[in-house]
Amino acid sequence: MGLIDKIPAYLEKTPGGGILMTPLNWAVNEVKASSLWYMLFGLACCAIEMMATGASRYDFDRLGMIFRATPRQTDLMIVAGTLTLKMAPRVKLLYEQMPEPKYVIAMGGCTVYGGPFYHDGYSVLKGVDKIVPVDIHIAGCPPRPEALMHGCIELQNMIRQEKLGQKRDRPGLRHMAAGTTRPSGLIVPDSMRIVQNA
Amino acid sequence: MLTTDTDTRDIRTEEFELNMGPQHPSTHGVLRMILKMDGEKVMHCDPIIGYLHRSIEKLAESRTFTQVIPVTDRLDYCTSMTSNYVYVLAVEALGDISPPPRAEYIRVIMSELNRIASHLLWYGTFCLEIGATTPFLYAFRDREKVLDLFEMTCGARLLYNYLRVGGVSRDLPSNFMQEMIGFLDYWEPMIAEYEDLLDKNPIFYNRAQGVGVLTPETARRYAVSGPSLRASGVNYDVRRAEPYSVYADLKFDVPLGQSGDVFDRYRMRMDEMRQAAHILRQCAENIPAGKFLDLHNWRFTLPKGEVYKHIESPRGDIGCYLVSDGGDKPWRCKFRTPSYVHIQLFQELIRDVLIPDIMAIAASFDIVLPETDR
Amino acid sequence: MKRQDFHRKLTERWPETGLDEDCENGLVVPVEAIHDIMQLLRDDPETECDYLDFITAVDHPPEHMHVVYSLYSLGKQHRIQLKVIVDRDAPTAPTVSHLWTNAEWNERETYDLYGVVFPGLKDPRRLLMPEDWEGHPMRKDYLHANLASKPD
């Protein structure tokens, strides 16, 4: 309590630069959270929704998220789509190629637990968290762009709570299902509520 | 084409292998290609698929006929409506069920709207792949408007699960026709805008003309279909050759290309979008009132037998081979998909081309990987 | 051409050709003659089936497996479906991959998912599953640790 909590508020008052005193922890987290560059890497249906999120109407850029084509330049891997057993080793390799700090979002039912392919899907990996640690799970098949953005904002909030020197693989930080709460602003139109009879 | 000032014939070069994919920003998914290279020239291409083999055909065997419909959504996520459609058509043919006339029109409207959405998605990504970012934003801006129409009809943006055996799952909302005509009025002039971005662009000409030429003979040998086949000058459109639903009553042109190169395949899809808008306007005029679904028990059995039905999806000729053993689940449900043959074609088309041409050729066929791997 | 015309044409050389009871435009043909039949259907100006839609298999345990070929003619716009019945324990059918190039992947896929061997196929690798995969997953009696059956 006291001055140290108020300092972030002084940031905007010094636009021309000058001396800024802030906890290093806060500054590092803010930098990490506001430039989450994600890997341009789509697997299946969810990749189309990820593209739609990046395109005109939803616009990922306003969260500071830009796609990069190579894993070497990315902070975030959005696993969008069904992960098959044939593809799984490649995804693990891609994750290992990313530099720290790195985060993973499991987008869609397939990556959470196998989705519609859970039963009788002989070639589908049932949950991407079996091979890489997942930070945010987003439910849906496919999740709407709003849900994906909601998941990304939750991830940013999570990053802002990190402490310097804390080991990130600690259980408890992982396995937070963000998409289980409906993002605010998602309205179900009236026409959908009534099931019309023939 | 390779042009060099110096004579390089005497320099000895060495072949090497290059792996492309399955994670590559321009392969439209998880396609992997093993390329044999000589300098920057591709000598041989070996496409490897199966990275998205999701056992859809096995899933279909353990679900009832109605439960398979959402599985077919995932078959081709860019055009869920047409993959719904071909499956439902096969079940109806086997069970001798005929949907009410209003449902037939709704199905055609949905197929054509989905054709527009799919072609817009193709247009955006095709331009991304050959290095233009702006068209992508234009295409997605308008694609969202099509998705709004779907959303007000069935509540979903991408995977619709809308068609049912014997009709469609719910009627069109009361303001649908008005919204759709409003969209068409806005969107039809936009096609010219898309074309302006590319047609008058010399860079695009150089990237597209004379690249990846597909001859009609090769196309037949590989069973290429859809706009890619018509770009080579073969007049085959399932909507014309074996009209299903109400396509026989609708007037539309089948655009034909001549040279079968990347540019012609691009032109085909642009012209098809115009025709789709034309069909939609006719449907809006002619759609009858009445029932949209013949209600029946959702768990039903079909007589023993087998049937093959195919329709024209935005990518080409998609077919469903359905075998029933008299029970309430399919005994075998095989999907014949256009992208499957198109990717196979790469081993012939991607030869003696430069690396950037791979992108242009691969993207021009509008390949979608889940449809290939199923 | 209708199915009867195809049937009449094929019975001239292969008298054991029969009509398929299940499929309204299908014929059942002897497995050893499938290559010659396909070549005839492709090259004969009367049939001119230049378009191979797909090749697949259907498992009928405990004894049989069907290999299904669907042919179409772009010029004449007719379709015919051929079916051969093979032994389920050692399913074998001659390859047609040098008649239509797209038969190659179709046959590779059929081998991958059903275990039907096509002697003469240039590249008999698996197509969809990883190369070290064991078993043929589309068979009805296939069991795998990854397979959780759907409750009815």
Please explain how this structure is put together:
The complex is a heterotrimer of chains A (198), B (374) and C (152). By secondary structure, chain A is an alpha/beta fold. In chain A, 32% of the residues lie in helices and 10% in strands. Chain A has a 4-stranded parallel β-sheet with strand order 3-4-5-6. In chain A, strands 1-2 form a two-stranded parallel sheet. In chain A, strand 3, helix 4 (88-97) and strand 4 (103-107) form a beta-alpha-beta unit. Chain B has helices at 56-61, 68-73, 80-95, 101-129, 134-154, 176-199, 202-208, 216-222, 227-230, 238-241, 262-286, 338-349, 355-364, 369-373, and strands at residues 15-20, 32-38, 41-48, 163-164, 167-168, 305-313, 316-324, 330-336, 353-354. In chain B, the strands form 3 sheets. Chain B has a 4-stranded antiparallel β-sheet. Chain B has a 3-stranded antiparallel β-sheet with strand order 6-7-8. In chain B, strands 4-5 form a two-stranded antiparallel ribbon. The mean pLDDT of chain B is 87. Chain C has 152 residues and is of the alpha+beta class. Helix content of chain C is 22%, strand content 22%. In chain C, strands 1-2-5-4-3 form a 5-stranded mixed β-sheet, covered by helices on one side. In chain C, strand 3 (51-60) and strand 4 (64-72) form a beta hairpin. Chains in contact: A-B, A-C, B-C. Chain A binds chain B through residues 40-45, 47-49, 51-52, 55-57, 69, 71, 81-82, 84, 86-87, 90, 94, 116-117, 119-124, 141-142, 144, 189, 191-192, 195-196, 198, and chain B through 22-23, 25, 29-30, 50-55, 58-59, 61-62, 70-71, 74, 77-78, 121, 124-125, 136-138, 140-141, 143-144, 147, 151-152, 155, 157-159, 170-171, 173, 291-293, 295, 369-370.
